[in-house]
Design goal:
Layout: H1 2-8, E1 12-17, E2 20-27, E3 30-34, E4 51-55, E5 58-61, H2 67-73, H3 94-107, E6 113-114, H4 118-126, E7 139-140
């Protein structure tokens, strides 16, 4: 089973920042329907009308941003309550994430890291990913 999952996983692109390596994976874009029909019982009221969205190919962090990666970029700072280098960083605001991404972009120029869009998350969820799907975190921008 593990061999099958690994053989279908996209190739990871390893990147190293301040001695810490993390990986990005390519995600094939596509077209999917975003939103719901007005009469859908699961409609929250702000999700209609449903419409087709086209997302180009993009790269996404293979795993959530770990505390080790956060510390490598943020000069050792770790805001997380639940400590552990392999754990995802938490207790981070949107503003904190923007500081992190700006620093990461200065350290690894040419990647243009940013947070994923709602449509990029949608295309990840709209397609089957036999390896369990891409991780959460950062995206390579256009």
């Amino acid at each position: 089973m593990t061999e099958t999952l690994l053989s279908t996983a996209p190739a990871a692109i390893p990147l190293t920042v301040n001695g810490h390596t993390f990986c990005m994976v390519s995600v094939q874009g596509g077209t999917f329907t975003m939103g719901t029909k007005k009469d859908d019982p699961d409609n929250y009221g702000d999700e209609h009308p449903d419409h087709d969205v086209r997302v180009p190919n993009f790269s996404l962090g293979q795993f959530p941003v770990t505390q080790a990666l956060w510390k490598a970029v943020m000069d050792g700072e770790n805001p997380s309550f639940f400590k552990g280098d392999t754990r995802p960083v938490e207790q981070v605001s949107w503003e904190d994430s923007q500081v992190f991404l700006n620093k990461l972009n200065r350290l690894l120029s040419g990647w243009n890291f940013r947070l994923p869009t709602e449509a990029e998350w949608g295309v990840c969820g709209a397609k089957p990913h036999p390896w369990g799907g891409p991780g959460r975190g950062i995206v390579r921008g256009q």
